């Protein structure tokens, strides 16, 4: 595409902008401005085509990458499922210990395990509704 007319026009426009920037820099230095480089930057900013000029009305300006959001939702769902599984395991363990309590457990061990058993609140804290509020 280097030989196409559009590429030649684009190269010519860039060359004209560079020459105009050099002329502006020379004039700013001639007039002994405090920061002559800004003259060149101003020419470059106004002469070269920006991305916004090339867009037409109704054209898509950008696309939001939703992969990060999808991954975050999947991680949150996995955390909820993990908490539910831990809760189910702790309930099953509590039922099993209660059934075996008359075998080898002392009263002190029963009380310790009973107070250390997790409650259903942990699973409720992990659940979130689609609108962002907790259930």
Account of the protein in words:
This protein is mainly alpha-helical. The protein folds into two domains: 5-51; 67-126. Helix content is 67%, strand content 0%. The chain has helices spanning 5-30, 37-47, 67-99, 101-104, 107-116, 121-126. Helix 1 (5-30) packs antiparallel against helix 2 (37-47). The chain is elongated. Mean pLDDT is 76; it is low at 120-126.
Task: Give a concise summary.
By secondary structure, this protein is mainly alpha-helical.
Largest sheet: none
Mean pLDDT, all residues: 76
Number of helices: 6
Indicate how many domains the architecture comprises: 2
- List unreliable stretches of 5+ residues: 120-126
Estimate what percentage of residues fall within beta strands.
under 5%
Total beta strand runs: 0
Q: How does the overall form come out from the CA principal axes?
A: elongated
Q: Which percent range fits the helix content?
A: 55-70%
Oligomer state of the chains in this structure: single chain
Query: Rounded to an integer, what's the Rg over CA atoms?
Result: 35 Å
Structural class: mainly alpha
Cα end-to-end separation: 59 Å
Output the helix-strand order. Answer: HHHHHH
């Amino acid at each position: 595409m280097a030989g196409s007319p559009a590429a030649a026009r684009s190269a010519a426009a860039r060359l004209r902008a560079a020459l105009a920037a050099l002329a502006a820099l020379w004039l700013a230095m001639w007039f002994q401005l405090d920061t002559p480089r800004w003259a060149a930057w101003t020419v470059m900013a106004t002469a070269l085509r920006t991305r916004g000029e090339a867009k037409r009305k109704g054209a898509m300006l950008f696309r939001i990458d939703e992969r990060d959001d999808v991954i975050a939702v999947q991680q949150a769902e996995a955390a909820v499922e993990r908490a539910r599984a831990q809760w189910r395991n702790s309930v099953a363990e509590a039922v099993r210990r209660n059934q075996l309590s008359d075998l080898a457990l002392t009263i002190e061990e029963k009380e310790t395990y009973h107070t250390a058993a997790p409650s259903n609140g942990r699973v409720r804290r992990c659940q979130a509704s689609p609108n962002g509020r907790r259930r």
